[in-house]
Amino acid sequence: MKSNSTSFTRRKLLQSAGALLAQSAVASSVRAADPRGTATVAQTPSIPRNGNVEYGQDTLPVGIRSRIIDNNNGVKMHILESGFQGRSRPCVILLHGFPELAYTWRNQLLPLAEAGFHVVAPDLRGYGRSVKTPVTYDDDVSRYSRMNLVSDVVGLVRALGCAKVAGVIGHDWGSPVAAWCALIRPDVFQSVVLVSTPFGQPRKAVAGIDIDRDLAALPRPRKHYSSYWASQGAN
User: Does the pTM of the predicted model rise above 0.85?
Assistant: First the structure.
């Protein structure tokens, strides 16, 4: 039997998902007439300076704040959060992709908070303020395994004082992390949303297909973008 609070949380999350995706498609600018009267140009609206964030002081609205949270898995994670007033709010975790930051979710933080959630977007391991020194090509990458990234998110949730979260939402590279969070710890993550990247097999696991080989054999050789980003030259 589901509790009323769990049912309410999931319903509210689904109702907010449409607003979340719609908001991401709307630029944070207004249209104004060009002085020559021949076109329109975008103007950034003036907003009060936000002194409660580590970056984006002139673009992140008041109501969003930064914190550094020790996740007890070897990383002190920088987070952006909104709707942090009161501990009774259901929590939603937003996971960014590559090469992004918590700042990716700047247009979703306030709308989800206004829908009644405590919304938390971390800089993931190796990104932004969640890393002390740049990641080099020769670093040990085992710390960035999918399962360890899941442990980072679980540790963050615990450090926030939450036993459960209403949902984990991932974009791009954050999507498989979100999916595995929900698969491994369904007791913690009550729902999951994947944006732009579906859950599935790694690209090299498809039988009989070698994308790197096939792209290299083209008349004008190509390289898959993920193979390029894994190269020393890209680093």
Answer: no
